[in-house]
Amino acid sequence: MKKILSISLALILLSSNMGFAVATHYCGGLAVESKVVLGHEALDCGMANMDKDCKTPPLEGMHLSKKPCCENKYQSIDTEDDFKPTIAQSMVNVEFVAAFIVTFLHLPISSTNEEPQYANYSPPLIDQDISVLHQVFLI
């Protein structure tokens, strides 16, 4: 459950920073096609290629062009802030460093040469034989 939640949150963060665009293709002033795209993708209905004149090459500065019947409009859905993790300023905590050294480096705080209390301890006698009580026998 935690893995699914963490993966879904990572995907939400990734998708929010990618920057989607809604591309709409207008042909003759009417919206013909709309897509959700990443960046700018060229949408085409095939009508834009029909207006080109292939017989005579255009002369520079002497050619008047018509307004094309097709156009693409893009509406960007972009986040304003980029995700930047905050960098925490670290302050040295003396108590934490001392506890870390004592715990992980096994440095004794005080030198004690006492013998442990459990060194000469003998266990109590058994009241009942457990293997007979549970009827477990080695054959």
Overview of this structure, please?
This protein has a three-stranded antiparallel sheet. The protein has a domain at 1-44 and 67-80. The mean pLDDT is 76. It has helices spanning 2-18, 94-104, 130-133, and strands spanning 20-27, 30-38, 70-77. By secondary structure, it is an alpha+beta fold.
What descriptive keywords fit this protein?
about 140 residues; about 25% helix
If strands are numbered along the chain, what order do they take across the biggest sheet? 2-1-3
Topology order in helix (H) and strand (E) letters = HEEEHH
In DSSP terms, counting alpha (H) and pi (I) runs of 4 or more, how many helices? 3
Give the termini distance in whole angstroms: 48 Å
**Helix/strand/pairing class, anyone?**
alpha+beta
How are the elements arranged and paired?
Layout: H1 2-18, E1 20-27, E2 30-38, E3 70-77, H2 94-104, H3 130-133
Antiparallel strand pairs: 1-2, 1-3
